[in-house]
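hiii so um. not sure if this is the right channel but i have a protein structure encoded as tokens and i wanna go backwards to a sequence. like what aa goes where. can anyone help
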């Protein structure tokens, strides 16, 4: 087995954001990357919306089988434990592969601001993001000025994204197994911390008061 995906899209789960990703971001970026890579890149986009019981290990396995991660940055990105884990996993892989050094300046994490970037942490400010806030609107038309701006921005940044994809280190099996195991454990730790029984929605009848003698 080797890499299954070229790009893992990390985003704060929301149906409106997912709609914009599927209808605008991925189609335009796919076209631009085809020009650079000479093949059609494969994307992983989690569309489970955190439902069901089998998605955590599948999510981790997909992350471990992806060459690079594009983090769609929003003000609440780090409020999601899953986004945080996705980002942390890929940053750890960068360090392990000795990337972002003078000898090898490429990285595997590509932040794209689709909302306010004020929450962008100081620890990763050395990673240059690209900003597409003005083009983030799930209701925009395909031929709208917003869509044209998005196409122009992705055309500009596609060469660097393609370079990161091509420069990804040789795939290692333990990336997928380690991420899948981490996500599985995290899911069950959080599940145990939450309510596991069906709440009582009816009030208990008060017990009759005992007559005093």
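sure thing!! here u go:
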């Amino acid at each position: 087995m080797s890499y299954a995906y070229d790009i893992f899209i990390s985003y704060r789960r929301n149906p409106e954001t997912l709609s914009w990703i599927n209808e605008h971001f991925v189609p335009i970026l796919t076209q631009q990357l085809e020009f650079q890579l000479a093949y059609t890149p494969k994307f992983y986009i989690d569309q489970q919306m955190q439902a069901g019981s089998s998605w955590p290990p599948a999510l981790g396995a997909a992350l471990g089988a992806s060459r690079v991660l594009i983090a769609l940055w929003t003000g609440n990105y780090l409020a999601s434990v899953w986004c945080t884990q996705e980002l942390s996993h890929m940053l750890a892989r960068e360090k392990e592969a000795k990337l972002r050094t003078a000898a090898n300046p490429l990285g595997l994490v590509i932040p794209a601001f689709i909302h306010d970037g004020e929450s962008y942490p100081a620890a990763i400010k050395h990673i240059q993001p690209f900003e597409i806030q003005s083009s983030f609107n799930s209701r925009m038309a395909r031929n709208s000025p917003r869509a044209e701006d998005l196409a122009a921005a992705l055309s500009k940044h596609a060469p660097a994204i393609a370079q990161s994809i091509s420069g990804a280190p040789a795939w290692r099996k333990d990336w997928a197994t380690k991420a899948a195991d981490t996500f599985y454990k995290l899911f069950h730790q959080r599940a145990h911390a939450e309510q596991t029984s069906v709440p009582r929605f009816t009030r208990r009848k008060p017990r009759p008061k005992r007559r005093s003698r």
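oh and Helices lie at 15-37, 55-64, 81-96, 145-166, 173-193.
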